[in-house]
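User: Hey, my collaborator sent me this sequence without any context and asked if I could get a structure. I don't really work with proteins. Can you help?
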Amino acid sequence: MNRVCIFVDSGNFYHLALKRIGIRENEFSFDKFAEFLFDGRDFIEDGKRFYVGTVRQKQNDHESTHAMKNQTRLFTELSKSDWVIKTSKLKTRKEKLIIDNRVENFEALKKQGIKEIKFERSREKGIDVKLATDLVVGAVDEKYDTAIIVSSDTDLIPAIDWVRKRKKKIVEYIGFSFPEMDLGDGEFLEAIRPTSGLIGNSDIQRILVGSDIKKFVKN
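Assistant: No problem. I've predicted the 3D structure and written it out in structure-token form, which is a compact way to encode the shape of the chain:
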């Protein structure tokens, strides 16, 4: 038998793949994507695992309210299909960008008296730890034979290395490849490439491109 478990780092997957083709999680069929990754193999009970930072609703903030409703709808849909959802709070912090020669047209901004730009940035905290812990615990408890990792987070490498070498588990890395995108007016989105550290520390590598991801977009 080859018992398979999928570990999806939602934030990583969104920024590396879904965002690149211009869709949100609710527009993507994670069930069909999982079937594609399982490829006819047996998956274990609780074998579809989804790790995500939860949206916080801000008072009198329409955007955060809308985002929270969308995420609740996503969680409801995933739960109906027996996905195990592991959450972590999104931490928001204020950051400051100093206007200097790293910023396009910085001289014009300085002439307008703009010396710095303050903004808020949200980051997931602890998602990689939860995924790594489940990966190791599942291996120790002999829950799976193959772990499919849908993440390019190199913080997972120590856990991956341990389950491969100590528990002889097979790790399959799902990476993504997108070319540089010309946005016009001299602006570009940089190319996305699979992570060499995950390639070198996995047994099987499957690199997906835009056309692969688009197959699972809902009609």
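In plain terms: The first strand starts at residue 4 and ends at 9. You can pass these tokens on to your collaborator as they are.
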